[in-house]
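User: Can you write out an input/output pair for a complex, sequences first and structure second?

Assistant: Here is one pair. Inputs:
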Amino acid sequence: MIICKDLNITQGAFKLSNINFQIKKGEYVVLMGKTGCGKTTILEVICGLRKLSSGEIWLNSNEISNFVPAQREIGYVPQDGALFKNMTIAQNIGFALKIRKWPKNEINMRVLELAKLLGIEPLLNREAHDLSGGEKQRVALARALSFYPKILCLDEPISALDDTTKVEMFNLLLELKKNLEITVLHISHSKEDALKLSDKVLLLTNGVLNEYKPTEILNKI
Amino acid sequence: MMGVMASTYIFLIIAMMLADLSYTTPYHIFEALKSEEIQYAIKLSLITCTVTMILSLLVAIPLGYFMARFEFRGKKVIDAILDIPIVLPPLVIGLSLLILFQTAPGKFIESHMRITYTVYSVVIAQFMVACAFAVRTMYVTFVQINNRQEQVALTLGCNQMQSFFYVLLPQAKNGILTAASLAWARALGEFGPILIFSGATRMRTEVLPTTVFLEMSVGNIEAAVAVSLIMIFSGFAVLMIVRLFGEKKTAI
């Protein structure tokens, strides 16, 4: 479970004040709002990539507001995937485990397990720059899931993909939601994502964050 | 129009080298290479340029990273200071270094270890100029690499140092090679600061540009041109090797 209490974020002239929400364990939440309204900023603050001016972020029973990103155990998938270009796909997926000094055979087993789950086994020995947009997102997802994160933060993982790949990725996220029961905060512009994937929708409008049921969102945007 | 100007520039560079080539003979080059003083100058140039290149990279990589990735008060001032060795006339750098070692801290260092008019001063003089080019190259290299991958690395469990070494540095490899070749080539051509700060003593602080100067001053133009050609070819060889090596690595 993640709880954000009275978050105040200042970034130059841009400000977000009194942001409050909570995501229960196993809940899939879609965060929506217009471009530039601060959705990615909230996600980055949760991941520890951006400073919080004031407020508290609780993950399960720990206050993580002052934790560095590595201590937070949050899986993060940016919009472009941001795969490590100097590594193979297998090395990308196993990177977090290498940093955690897992034994090599266990890293290989986990990489294979995730590759099977996400349908990217044939890509394991390839380089990141060889992949299509959809493949990159799958690899980024596998990499973020590798270390069993407490929550997964997805920054528009579907929006930049073509229509066919979008459907594939969409179905994959649905499967992950069913099979892994992982807590997810997913930024999206799409009502379809909100309707089909989410248990709850957070809508950020003019700096105010409101909570809706997925079906209610149709009338709000 | 711009194409003509660009071709004229390239033509001028080649024409200068061809003119040097036409002014000397293999005999003069062979004679120059046989001279004990010139052999010493070649050896000293190779050693000091390599040391300067290593020192420049050791400074340029962390400094370039810091300037590219962090915002802080006074950053613009530091940025301008880093370019001073590029815009200052080389003679002024040499003079400033000489004066620096006449101040109390400089004298204190000199009382423990002689710097001015020694080989150390050659390296310092080369380093002061070459490092500025290496820093600028590394700064541009790091700015051009999107920091999103480093951010992801942080969420995956890396500390700042690990994300730098595992994620950023391997991607900056071509920039590092360029910075290294620039620093080396810059150091090879340095003359003004060395003349002032290290002197032009044969078999002591004589590097290749000093040789050209000394041979010219005694009217031995053929030897000066022969040494110039040695410098041109060694500089060109280093730049080419680094470029080819860089491309090969990128292709893999």
